[in-house]
Write a structure and sequence with these properties.
Number of helices: 16
Structural class: alpha/beta
CATH superfamily of the largest domain: Glycogen Phosphorylase B
CATH architecture of the largest domain: 3-Layer(aba) Sandwich
CATH topology of the largest domain: Rossmann fold
Number of domains: 2
Helix content: 40-55%
Distance between the termini: 17 Å
Radius of gyration: 21 Å
Largest sheet: 7 strands, mixed
Strand order of the largest sheet: 3-2-1-6-7-8-9
Length: 401
């Protein structure tokens, strides 16, 4: 039985934690930052990791104030390793895992007092008899199914429409995603709440001295590389970034390489084929996953962020670059226009010439870089995880009213 919530009293929040089991990409960052903000306000958060419940964030730190330095629990570490193993070596795992996970979810719920609200930040919630909130970050799998692996398409097609029906509220991360959901699915407008993502205060301008140690670890120089940040997957449209950079003179490309920062994703065969020559001559660098604490410094050290994504629901790397005072060169995808406003250079995702010319301009034009840096910092001040958490808590209070 769910206890009646006294207005203003601390909430007990259950949150899906599966996005925290792999190196943190956008959804993992979202869940992690919200949970920490909730706990700072006196609420409690427990994560469901698919095999067990825990108050420890899978990146290795507890969200509970009483144990700020707690190590990653053994069970959570095993769950993370099991998820990575299953994804790589067990064909069809996505077909039978939901039933096992639902059983473990229910077992954990029975052993403790029911939370006031359950929030799954990763599209599809488990069945729960109490107030349920989900977050939908985009519908790229509807608009661009060719950019997604077949197992993910099957999972979302079979479960996401039912998730929309079961959820008491659906948080979306931009006006664009709200409009997309209403266009693609039958959902009552009053069920949707727009809550923008935030940006960590760790993303701010840093001097060359401050970034030197981290950049040296990766063989980079402050202000002497273009950063392309994000999971390597087709939707990020790195082919345009590579082709545009390749049109610069060879001496320029060697002096200002294109640096790919992000975990290996899916359907990347053509990307790796296109990367070959540039990786060999050093004009493109591929860092792969880098530790979370290095990202603010690697972002701030870039001459500019290059982000030619075909489709986004929000575009967190764009916001983080703006907060770091780094000029942004991105696609004109609608969500990116919503987030960046007039603080970025924008081109059609397929406009290779436009991206190439803009790269050269960013190298040559100090005044342009300074204008974009100032505009980006000003724009980023409109976003914070504190604000995101407060607005998310308001959504919880709506379903509890």
């Amino acid at each position: 039985m769910i206890d009646e919530q006294v207005p203003g009293a601390p909430l007990e929040i259950a949150m899906g934690g599966r996005a925290l089991l792999t190196p943190l990409t956008g959804i993992g960052q979202y869940a992690s930052h919200l949970a920490r903000e909730f706990v700072q306000r006196g609420h409690s958060v427990r994560f469901f990791y698919g095999t067990h419940w825990s108050s420890s964030i899978a990146e290795g730190r507890s969200v509970e104030p009483a144990a700020p330095g707690a190590d990653l629990s053994l069970r959570t570490a095993v769950a993370r390793a099991a998820k990575q193993f299953a994804r790589r070596y067990v064909p069809g795992v996505y077909r039978f895992m939901p039933r096992i996970e639902q059983y473990r979810f229910d077992s954990g719920m029975r052993r403790r007092r029911s939370p006031h609200v359950y929030h799954d930040p990763n599209f599809i919630p488990f069945r729960f008899r109490g107030p349920t909130v989900i977050t939908a970050h985009d519908v790229s799998w509807v608009r661009y199914p060719e950019y997604h692996p077949s197992h993910r398409l099957a999972l979302l097609r079979a479960n996401f429409p039912k998730a929309l029906e079961r959820a008491d509220r659906v948080i979306v991360v931009s006006d664009f995603v709200r409009d997309e959901l209403q266009s693609c699915f039958s959902i009552a407008p009053e069920k949707l709440n727009v809550v923008y993502n935030g940006v960590s205060p760790r993303f701010r301008p840093y001097t060359a001295d401050a970034t030197r140690v981290v950049l040296a670890r990766h063989g980079l120089l402050h202000g002497r590389y273009f950063a392309a940040v994000g999971t390597l997957e087709p939707r990020k449209n790195l082919h345009t970034a590579l082709a545009a950079h390749a049109r610069l003179p060879i001496a320029v490309r060697r002096a200002v390489p294109l640096v790919l920062i992000g975990v290996e994703g899916w359907l990347t065969g053509s990307l790796h084929a296109a990367l070959g020559a540039s990786l060999r001559d050093g004009t493109v660098r591929k860092l792969g996953y880098v530790p979370d604490h290095e990202m603010p410094l690697l972002t701030a050290g870039a001459l500019a962020l290059v982000y030619p994504s075909v489709y986004e629901g929000f575009g967190l790397p764009v916001l983080e670059a703006m907060a770091a005072g780094v000029p942004v060169l991105c696609s004109s995808a609608q969500a990116l226009r919503e987030v960046a406003g007039d603080a970025a250079l924008m081109y059609d995702p397929a406009d290779t010439d436009g991206f190439a010319e803009a790269m050269q301009s960013l190298i040559d034009d100090h005044a342009l870089r300074a204008r974009l840096s100032a505009a980006g910092c000003a724009r980023a001040r409109h976003f914070s995880w504190r604000r995101s958490a407060e607005e998310t808590l308001d959504v919880y209070r709506q379903v509890l009213a």
